[in-house]
């Protein structure tokens, strides 16, 4: 029996749970301090008077915090008996054992129960002005038909379905249909090549793939079904491919292919949800590791959903009725947590953005904000920097008065981009939240909010850990750094419900990568600085830290200074082997459109700025001006590729298939050769 939201607080904990939690959890109707107004989930936690105290309790007494929140926030068919059973030294992470629930019920049925006509999805299609809305009732119906269809075609609980689709309602319904019948999903970004797709299908051992005939993005048509055809040739496990129609153009169908919408129409609109254990797999998501084989990170049901929902609600200050606009693709973790699961678990209206920031012109985002009345906008620094280059007029053309919070994710946001986002896009009135997290963390871990409403936000800093998150910095000896105004390797000292549970089929790699470097801690792979005030600033991947004459310096720090130059659109800094200094600094710089300067003059100016803002040793030895930087399709600058070019190791460039535009690399190589020949004695 699936009860609507609110049912959970009525559950009586089992005697075991009562025993284990007795010392922590005091449910009391009396102590409704202002914390309850801010966070109703925490209303039952006694003796907490204020947000700072709540944050403190979420770490010092994390079991009672997460137990209360999980009971309140999720709809369980059977309550959990054990809050957590984790041992970071062995990479063992389990939350809410004994609990049973269904994620699709949590994301759909309970909202249909209370408000079936509320809009769940607004599909901002590539064709501007042709958005389509889907209510919670409609999304549930779509999900149920699809769940029944998958079941009829033999997809069982525990199977893994690969989804290779652009961001669209049927992709969301596919994810939720898997969740409904207890299958795991493996969404592969629809920009990946056939080889990359095939590798992920094989590793996930999927026998079912869901795709569309063609994709449409930035006015260009992509042949997704053809890519799947090529991929599955090297995937013997694949037995069936469901094909939805994004365009009207027919594609060749084989005996293996099934016309999805046509078949869905034959299915019942009711689909019995599978009763899942908290720790059953919800999805795999492959991350583009900097080298070697991609890692299929595994997330499970209850902990992931809870963490996505809670962070969505509190980091962005989401309120009932808001329209949430996260422009990430569903092929990345940001799309999973903040386009699909977080917003839907909270009953939000969530935007599915199919286009690009500059299609058909650089006003696309802000036109969309005006048309869809978006309240929270969540995007990537790379897009912000690109738009900044085109000038304020593209923003000012549109009414952005609905905006309340602006978010940034994916890489460090430099001060100039942050300030432009805040001042121009948000008219100086919306908090900008720079959110740090990873595929591995499931949801946002460090962000300026939640905090006291007036607490300061420092540009370009993720700043404050979320509830239950306990970050620490480690020195090179593996010792915890206790003071402030210090930098180190960013680790987490405590488990939290949203963290990944393993790497699919390779638990040892999971342990080696995340838990072995600092035993007892989760190692993020990032470096961070903790300011005098205790705020965190991410300094970049640790492999992006360079050592110049014995001085450690984050490449992101240098980039931040270079980007402050008004002529610069963006930059990437890498280290290279230097015979005297150990490492030297090599900067790639992209200028804003229409800038006409002497490169030599600008180089001098940039060197002066870095010397002045950081130190002389940080000043670039080489500055190469480039038209664009090589980026992944999710917009991350491929510093690995830049490092190889700078080391003249063209053999070692590795797999470039995940690049947005491989031609950018050729331009970079030529520019590098030109620069070297100019500087040869
Ligand atoms: C959510 C996402 C994770 C890596 C992470 C870090 C970088 C993400 C950041 C940030 C500085 C931020 N990163 N957010 N760096 N400031 N606000 O992007 O996940 O694709 O797994 O990437 O991205 O280096 O380790 P994912």
TrEMBL record:
**Domain (AMP-binding enzyme C-terminal) ranges:** 557-636
List the SUPFAM superfamilies hit by this protein, alphabetically.
Acetyl-CoA synthetase-like (SSF56801)
Its BP terms in the Gene Ontology are: acetyl-CoA biosynthetic process from acetate; lipid metabolic process
Q: Which GO terms describe its cellular component?
A: mitochondrion
Q: What is its EC number?
A: 6.2.1.1
What the entry lists under NCBIfam families is as follows: Ac_CoA_lig_AcsA (TIGR02188), PRK00174.1 (NF001208)
What is the protein's given name? Acetyl-coenzyme A synthetase
What organism is recorded for this protein? Answer: Haplochromis burtoni (Burton's mouthbrooder)
């Amino acid at each position: 029996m699936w009860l609507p939201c609110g049912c959970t607080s009525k559950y009586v904990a089992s005697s075991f749970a009562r025993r284990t939690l007795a010392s922590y959890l005091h449910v009391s109707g009396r102590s409704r301090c202002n914390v309850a107004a801010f966070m109703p989930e925490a209303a039952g936690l006694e003796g907490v008077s204020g947000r700072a105290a709540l944050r403190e309790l979420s770490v010092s007494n994390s079991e009672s915090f997460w137990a209360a929140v999980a009971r309140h926030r999720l709809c369980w068919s059977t309550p959990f008996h054990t809050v957590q059973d984790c041992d970071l030294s062995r990479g063992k992470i389990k939350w809410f054992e004994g609990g049973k629930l269904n994620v699709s019920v949590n994301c759909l049925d309970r909202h249909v129960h209370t408000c079936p006509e509320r809009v769940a999805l607004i599909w901002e299609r590539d064709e501007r002005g042709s958005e389509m809305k889907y209510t919670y009732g409609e999304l549930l119906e779509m999900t149920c038909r699809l769940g029944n269809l998958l079941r009829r075609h033999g997809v069982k609980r525990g199977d893994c379905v690969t989804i290779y689709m652009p961001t669209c309602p049927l992709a969301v319904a596919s994810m939720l249909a898997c969740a409904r019948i207890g299958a795991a999903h493996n969404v592969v970004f629809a920009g990946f090549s056939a080889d990359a797709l095939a590798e992920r299908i094989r590793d996930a051992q999927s026998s079912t793939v869901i795709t569309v005939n063609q994709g449409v993005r930035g006015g260009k048509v992509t042949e997704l079904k053809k890519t799947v055809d090529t991929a599955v040739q090297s995937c013997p496990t694949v037995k069936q491919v469901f094909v939805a129609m994004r365009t009207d153009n027919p594609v060749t169908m084989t005996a293996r292919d099934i016309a999805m919408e046509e078949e869905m129409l034959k299915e019942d609109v009711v689909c019995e949800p599978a009763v899942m254990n908290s720790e059953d797999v919800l999805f795999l998501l492959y991350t583009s590791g900097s080298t070697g084989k991609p890692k299929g990170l595994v997330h499970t049901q209850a902990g992931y959903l809870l963490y996505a929902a809670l962070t969505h609600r509190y980091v962005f200050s989401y309120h009932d009725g808001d329209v949430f606009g996260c422009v990430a693709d569903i092929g990345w973790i940001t799309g999973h947590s903040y386009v699909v699961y977080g917003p839907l678990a909270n009953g939000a209206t969530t935007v599915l953005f199919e286009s690009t920031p500059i299609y058909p012109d650089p006003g696309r985002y802000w036109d969309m904000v005006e048309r869809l009345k978006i309240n929270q906008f969540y995007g990537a620094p790379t897009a912000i920097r690109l738009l900044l280059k085109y000038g304020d007029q593209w923003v000012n053309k549109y009414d952005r008065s609905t905006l309340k919070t602006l978010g940034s994710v994916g890489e460090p946001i430099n001060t100039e981009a942050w300030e432009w986002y805040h001042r121009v896009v948000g008219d100086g009135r919306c908090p900008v939240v720079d959110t740090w997290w990873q595929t591995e963390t499931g949801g946002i871990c460090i962000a300026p909010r939640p905090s006291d409403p007036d607490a300061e936000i420092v540009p370009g800093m993720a700043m404050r850990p979320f509830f239950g998150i306990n970050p620490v910095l480690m020195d090179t000896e593996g010792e915890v750094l206790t003071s402030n105004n210090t930098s180190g390797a960013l680790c987490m000292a405590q488990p939290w419900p949203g963290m990944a549970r393993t790497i699919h089929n390779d638990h040892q790699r999971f342990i080696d990568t995340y838990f072995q470097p600092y035993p007892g801690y989760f190692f993020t792979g990032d470096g961070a600085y903790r300011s005098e005030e205790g705020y965190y600033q991410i300094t970049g991947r640790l492999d992006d830290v360079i050592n110049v004459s014995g001085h450690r310096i984050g490449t992101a720090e240098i980039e931040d200074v270079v980007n402050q130059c008004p002529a610069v659109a963006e930059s990437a800094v890498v280290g290279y082997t230097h015979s005297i200094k150990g490492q030297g600094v090599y900067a790639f710089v992209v200028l804003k459109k229409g800038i006409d300067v002497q490169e030599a003059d600008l180089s001098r100016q940039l060197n002066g700025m870095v010397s002045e803002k950081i130190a002389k040793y940080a000043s670039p030895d080489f500055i190469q001006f480039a038209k664009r930087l090589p980026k992944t399709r999710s917009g991350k600058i491929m510093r690995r590729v830049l490092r190889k070019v700078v080391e003249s190791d063209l053999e070692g460039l590795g797999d470039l298939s995940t690049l947005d535009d491989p031609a950018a690399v050729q331009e970079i190589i030529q520019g590098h050769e030109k620069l070297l020949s100019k500087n040869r004695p």
